[in-house]
Design goal:
It is built from 10 helices and 17 strands. By secondary structure, the chain is of the alpha/beta class. The structure holds ligand LLP.
């Protein structure tokens, strides 16, 4: 193993996950799954994902460049984000990506300017704020009226008309994304209903949609990852299969991130010290929120296991070395008796783990490797 802390990826788990996705959508030739590269942009992962012909969902120029550098076709790339900078728009236009998911009228105007400057046309969809509550953590819910994302439904029609009137645009349709780590399927039922209603209304105004993009958000099992390494894609896709009233020839797009990569990755860290306090025993490890920020940022919990000890189970607070009291991975964790030098794994860390790591405290970014769990 490389130096710790280190991200490890089990490509066997990733491959089973990708197979499960493709099996669930086989038979729907008008469906397209784009991998949300924000979840993990490690080339080890991207190479395999590319073999399963998933497209890519990007939210920055940097992500577009990484997708292209890793062999994804520009024609498979969709580009969302509330704050696209001019250089990012230019990069997307020059590469002729599949679609911009436009989030405001102001952005539409800037894309028109950049099209004129570069002599390009752009395929665009509008990101709609459907005002659906995904009942997930406040920091990762996106589809409510108070969130910054997308265009609210009452404001949509004049903006679509404006796009239709400008020959630099090919208007493709609508984009939705309601949030992340969604395990209760109710918000997806509501989303289908919203999409159906909106499509009826727009048709009554003479507006036709070539494509609908329902975003991502499908959650994973952080509590029992070893028992449930693969999310229930069948149940998820069936909701759209049964409830969305697609028109003939209409294309349906998905943007899954976490559900694709979370379970194939873990963060392995070494125990530096075991410290006995008056009421607590601490396992102080060499990873901190610099390597995995989800617990500190969202109060998320990743299952923790001691990979090297077979001792009796005992209670520990597992904490990192960063000089901040939020640098805690778990309180009162049951771990096999732990000693200095033991290797500890934080499971389900393949999504929004490595990619969100930082160099706070002048720490180096973590290395990564593949292995079988
Ligand atoms: N599409 C759009 C427009 C998005 O903003 C996102 C995620 C996705 C797709 C993919 O969502 P997923 O299938 O991965 O849920 N860092 C947070 C999650 C932030 C999600 C941001 N947007 C976390 O660690 O929980």
């Amino acid at each position: 193993m490389m130096r710790t802390p280190c991200y490890q990826y089990d490509l066997g788990i990733l491959e089973s996950t990708l197979k499960s996705i493709n099996k669930s959508i086989a038979g729907n030739s008008d469906w397209h799954v784009h991998y949300a590269i924000k979840a993990n942009a490690n080339p080890l992962i991207l190479k395999l994902i590319n073999q399963y012909v998933l497209g890519i969902d990007c939210v920055s120029g940097g992500e577009i460049q990484v997708a292209l550098d890793n062999g994804f076709k520009a024609s498979s790339i969709v580009f969302a984000g509330v704050g696209k900078a001019d250089w990012e728009i230019d990069l997307a236009l020059k590469n002729d990506i599949a679609c911009f998911n436009v989030e405001s009228e102001a952005e539409l105007d800037v894309i028109a300017e950049r099209c004129a400057a570069l002599g390009k046309t752009a395929r665009i969809a509008f990101r709609v704020n459907p005002d659906v509550d995904a009942h997930t953590h406040a920091n990762i819910t996106t589809g409510k009226a108070e969130n910054k994302f997308g265009i609210e439904i009452p404001m949509l029609l004049p903006i679509i008309r404006k796009a239709l009137a400008n020959p630099c645009f090919k208007f493709m349709g609508l984009h939705f994304h309601i949030g992340s780590q969604i395990l209760d399927m109710e918000p997806y039922h509501l989303l289908c209903k919203k999409v159906n209603d909106l499509q009826d209304k727009l048709e009554a105004e003479g507006i036709k949609l070539d494509s609908i993009n329902v975003g991502g958000g499908l959650g994973i099992d952080y509590v029992n990852p070893e028992q449930n390494p693969i999310p229930d894609f069948e149940q998820y896709f069936n909701i759209f299969r049964n409830e969305l009233k697609l028109r003939s020839g209409q294309q349906l797009h998905f943007e899954l991130g976490r559900a694709v990569v979370a379970q194939c990755g873990r963060l392995v860290t070494k125990v530096l010290y075991v410290k006995q306090g008056t009421i607590k025993k601490f396992a102080i490890v060499d990873a901190g929120f610099t390597e995995l920020i989800r617990p500190a940022l969202y109060g998320a919990h990743h299952k923790i296991v001691n990979l090297t000890s077979k001792g009796e189970m005992q209670k520990y607070d597992v904490v990192g070395p960063i000089c901040e009291s939020s640098d805690v991975f778990g309180k009162d964790e049951m771990l096999a008796e732990t000693h200095r030098g033991d290797l500890i794994a934080l499971l389900s860390a393949g999504a929004y783990g490595e990619v969100m790591s930082s160099q706070y405290n002048c720490r180096p970014l973590p290395p990564s490797e593949t292995c079988k769990f």
